[in-house]
Amino acid sequence: EADIAMYKAKELGRNQLAIYSSEMGTVEVRKMEIEQDLPLSMTRDQLFVEYQPKMDVKENRIIGVETLLRWEHPKFGVISPSEFIPIAEVSGVIAELTKWTLEEACSQCKQWQRQGIDLPVAVNLSVKLFQSINVSQFVHHILTKYQLDPKYLEVEVTESVIYSNQEAIYRQLHDIRTLGVRVSMDDFGTGYSSISLLDSLPIDTLKLDKSFVDHIEEENKQILIEGILFIADKLGLEVIAEGIETKRDEEIVKKLGCFVMQGYYYRQPVCAKELVEWIHQRRM
Ligand code: C2E
Ligand code: MG
Ligand code: MG
Ligand code: MG
Predict the structure, then answer these.
(1) Any idea where the EAL domain is (predicted)?
(2) Ligand 4 centroid to 149 CA: how many Å?
(3) Sequence-distant (≥ 6) Cβ neighbours of residue 151 within 8 angstroms
(4) Model-level pTM?
(5) What is the largest CA-CA distance in the chain?
(6) What rounded mean pLDDT belongs to the chain?
(7) Which of 83, 147, 161, 209 could form a disulfide with 187 if both were Cys (CB 3.0 to 4.6 A apart)?
């Protein structure tokens, strides 16, 4: 009996039970348990966020943070968002998770301001979210609730949001920008990037994907980065390079003309308290 897992299978329709046997691989069982436990993560206080600094390397200062969601699962330990976000998107809890994260980030940002720390926060939004709630309305609600100036909030969306080419999503992104919240295109250069769409997208910033930096020693990668920087500049878009891990990464990216960076070289994502300690240390 122990090797039989029962599971409410969404695919089969509401309230139908599917029985999985030991023939199922551990990967599938884990996925199933994650899906089942996800709704509880919020009520049982298992979610938390970490913040990773975004650096202006010209001025050598922190200009904002990205909020990264974490889940301390009672059995599996801390699970990466790369694993549970795609599951949350399918199971439908993504809206609740994102609402929770937005609240956490905005309330933290406000708290920092009270401590005299001006630190804009960025929150990742997934494609599926735009299909399930009116995101701009919710963002507006949260800004009002926490009395937060919209210039302190940024949202990051991946290319797939943007190239899904749905009018409704474009409109929501446009509305979010109208509120005064900045919009970044995350992981730019990985999926379906189409340069020709860049001039019509409701975005402020391109986040150059880590894969460019991973092969930064290759001349062709450098040519691509230079090209992207040139186009972004002409279109009035800002560019931030993700995944800077070494001094050499920073040097090359800087030489190519990009001065805003994020990566382990500066700091891994950390809890709010550690981040503030780090900022104070740097100021001394
Ligand atoms: P992302 O938005 O592109 O976030 C950057 C990821 O790269 C983070 O992984 C970060 O910890 C990692 N990273 C940062 N600097 C470096 C570096 O120098 N080297 C390497 N190897 N990695 C670096 P993380 O936290 O595991 O998040 C993975 C992805 O999960 C995120 O990618 C984002 O797409 C998604 N995610 C995280 N939090 C949320 C959330 O609240 N909502 C949604 N929808 N997605 C989220
Ligand atoms: Mg991101
Ligand atoms: Mg990214
Ligand atoms: Mg990513």
Answers:
(1) 31-283
(2) 27
(3) 120, 180, 181, 182
(4) 0.92
(5) 64
(6) 90
(7) 209
Distance 54 CA to ligand 1 centre (A): 13
d(CA 22, CA 25): 7
Name the closest-CA residue to atom 14, ligand 1.
263
Instruction: Supply the residue whose CA is at minimum distance from atom 22 of ligand 1.
Output: 243
CA of residue 284 to ligand 4 center, whole Å = 33
Helices (H), the chain: 26-43, 81-91, 94-114, 127-132, 135-145, 159-163, 167-178, 210-214, 219-235, 247-256, 272-283
Residues with CB under 6 A from ligand 1: 52, 68-69, 80-82, 85, 98, 101, 124-126, 156, 186-187, 210, 243-245, 262-264, 269
- Nearest residue CA, atom 29 of ligand 1? 82
Ligand 1 mean position, distance from CA 2 (Å): 35
Question: Residue 19: pLDDT above 80?
Answer: no
Neighbours of 107 (CB within 10 A): 15
Local structure of residue 258 (DSSP, 8 states): -
What six digits make up the tokens of 32?
């199933």
Q: Is 218 helix (H, G, I), strand (E, B) or coil?
A: coil
Q: DSSP state, 11?
A: G
Please tell me whether the interface predicted TM-score (ipTM) of this complex is above 0.95.
yes
Quick one: tokens of 144? 């009002």
Task: Determine the Cα–Cα distance for residues 184 and 21; give it in Å rounded to an integer.
Answer: 44
Dump pLDDT digits (tens) for 173-197. 999 999 999 999 999 988 766 777 7
